[in-house]
Specification:
The chain is mostly helical. The protein has 11 helices and 2 strands, in the order αααββαααααααα. It has one domain. The longest helix has about 35 residues, at about 55-85. About 40% of the residues are buried.
Amino acid sequence: MFGYYPVFLREMMLFRRRFLRLGYFFSAMFAPLLYLLAFGLGLGHRISIAGGSYLDFLLPGLIAMSSMNNSYTWIATSLTVGRLHFRTFQVFIQSPVSPCAIVLGEVLAGMVRGLFASSMILLVGLFLGSGLYFMPLFIPALLLNCFLFASLGVLSGLRAKSHEDTATFSNFFILPMAFFGGTFFPIEELPRWLQFVIRILPLAHTNKLMRAKCMGPDCLLSLAVLVIFAVIFFVISVYLVRTYSE
């Protein structure tokens, strides 16, 4: 399992190089920051929702959405490019590193990217005057969310046959979940049939946990759902690496 570190270190060195580019730095957080400034400044303290200001409700959702987007996109894009163009992923396969270690290194790199983007959104939200309190489940939910979607990024990156495949999956799964998973408004405002569909998706449970004020049966269920999704995506990714034949 210690073989994960070279994989992780490579991704972090690439992240450091790209991080120094101003355009790349802002592109990773442009959409969440735009939503935060538009809705946070425009509606943040004028609308009350869930017993607090709209800004207090919006900020955890944007943090969850940002962690999802960045954890997933970084790994899915990196693996797709590495497999199809530079053939760097094939070097991992030929090296004496276990499939589990390869996946773990990639997932940890995705988590770092997701946590970094989330922390930037949090700082901007606090600067705008949010009264967000760190609930007991806030950090565990954020870490699980990053792990889950980074694992999904590995899965997607290994299955994609082109950049279009990665974009298609993001447009039909990641993007709708970002808007309807409880980020901008409570899920209870949706029609009942749509609520049932949304509650199956992991981001809805992350949003619920990051806003939860105490540990209850519903929170334990949401926590279990995230763990199950994370384990499933991770195990499938390990299997795909183990059976990789390109």
